[in-house]
Structure formats: C-alpha cells, structure tokens
Design a protein that fits this description.
- The protein is mainly alpha-helical and 185 residues long.
- 78% of the residues lie in helices and 0% in strands.
- It is built from seven helices and no strands.
- The termini are far apart.
C-alpha cells in the first residue's frame, strides 16, 4: 500500500515538472515570436527608408548629415543581434526620421509630392505597428520573466537554465522626458 502511495506521489511530481517545463518553453517561444514581430516591422521601416530618403534628397540638399546618419544606422542594423542594440538603433533612427519630417514642413513643394505623401503615410503606419509590437513584446517578456521568478516554476527554470529576457526600453533620457506643448504661439 505504501509503495503505491509513493509511486503516485512520484508520478504527480513528474507530471508537475513536465507541465512547468512545457509552460516555460511555451513562454520562451512566445517571447521569441514577439521579438520577431518587432524585427519584421523594423525591417519594413528600414526597407521604406531608401525610397523616402531619395524622394526627400532632391528638396533638402543641406540635410546630408541626416541622410548619412540614416545610411549608417541601416548598416549597423544588419550587424546587431541583441534587443538592447536594436532598441538603441531604433531610437536613433526615430530621431533622424523626426528631423526629416520636421524639416519637410519648410518645403511646401515636397509636402505636395505624391511619392513623399505616400511614403510618409507608410512610415507613420509602420511606426504605429512598431509601437504596438514593442508593447506586445514587453508584455510577453514580463509574463515569461515572471514565470522564471515565481515558485515553483523558478526551481524548474534554474534546473533547465532558462534565462530572463530584456525589455525593449527607451535608451535616451530625451525619449523619457515629458513633451512640452504650447498652444499659445
């Protein structure tokens, strides 16, 4: 009788360990998928940028420094792997694109250009998708990292060497600042 009780307990423990392990694997796969979605949207933006830059170049010849920065960022993008590096490049690129958009306000003929309008709209849509993908990624990473910390799955996570993942965060202090809006001008 005691043998059956011990066997039942061992079976229950084995099933619990398998269930927790599988839950951790599924959570890790969701994190990888969420990162892939960010990567796809960032790549889409990088694919749109050469056409956008070519459209703008003819009108803004004095903005060559910004165009060179964008080209440099595209090259760096291909050589990065980590979430932190890609987040940093993403922030730099966003700032460069904001500069071009702000400067374009002073060029009415550029704003009237059909190609510029279409590419601007595509970039805006892509930026929205990137923002949503970042949020989804961070939510998924938070759920995964929580599973790594709570009992008893933390025991299984340490036994099978599961590692916490980094959140996609704003790199610069500038990105964290509150924006001052003044409608009085």
């Amino acid at each position: 009788m005691i043998g059956w009780i011990i066997l039942a307990i061992v079976i229950i423990v084995v099933i619990a360990v398998i269930a927790m392990y599988n839950g951790l694997v599924q959570a890790r796969i969701k994190v990888d998928n969420a990162w892939s979605q960010i990567d796809v949207q960032l790549q889409r933006r990088f694919d749109l940028i050469p056409n956008f830059v070519e459209t703008v170049k003819g009108y803004m010849t004095h903005e060559s420094e910004t165009f060179e920065k964008i080209a440099e960022l595209r090259t760096s993008w291909a050589n990065t792997e980590s979430v932190a590096e890609k987040a940093s490049l993403d922030n730099e690129l966003s700032n460069a694109l904001k500069t071009i958009m702000a400067v374009s306000e002073g060029y009415p003929e550029l704003k009237a250009n059909q190609n510029f309008s279409e590419l601007s709209e595509e970039l805006r849509n892509t930026e929205n998708k990137i923002s949503f993908s970042r949020q989804f990624y961070n939510d998924t990473v938070t759920m995964y990292n929580t599973k790594l910390e709570v009992f008893p799955s933390n025991i299984i996570a340490s036994m099978f060497n599961f590692k916490a993942r980094d959140l996609f965060e704003a790199e610069s202090e500038e990105a964290r600042k509150n924006v001052k809006v003044d409608f009085g001008k």
